[in-house]
């Protein structure tokens, strides 16, 4: 499966892109994250979407991807690194 293939299946391609780039905090951020997660929940390409985001360098990783925030993915990376170091 190429990137172009899975991206063509992305449910968010029909959504407002701004929804996936919420403000860093506050009520508006919570509302946008919740709405984006609802869209991602039933997306058929959630897995490759997550894998691509998770593999990005931290400085290039932002926005909602596969129902996760960049902050959540950073925390996941830290947990994985800690497990690998143990
Ligand atoms: S999982 Fe979410 S962000 Fe990823 S392609 Fe699907 S709808 Fe878009």
Describe the structure.
The longest helix has 16 residues, at 70-85. The chain is globular. It has one domain (3-85). The protein has 4 helices and no strands. The chain is mainly α and 86 residues long.
Question: What's the quick description here?
Answer:
The protein has 86 residues and is an all-alpha fold.
- What is the H/E string? HHHH
Secondary structure: number of strands: 0
Distance between the termini: 34 Å
Bound molecules: iron/sulfur cluster
Whole-number total of structural domains: 1
- Helix count from the secondary structure assignment: 4
The overall average pLDDT, rounded, is 94
Major β-sheet, in short?
none
Shape: globular
Beta content:
under 5%
Cα-atom Rg, whole angstroms?
14 Å
Percent in helix: 40-55%
Q: What structural category characterises the helix and strand content?
A: mainly alpha
Low-confidence region ranges = none
Quick tags:
86 residues, mainly alpha, globular, binds iron/sulfur cluster
Structural topology:
Blueprint: H1 3-8, H2 27-41, H3 46-55, H4 70-85
Iron/sulfur cluster is lined by residues 10-12, 39-40, 43, 45-46, 49, 65-66.
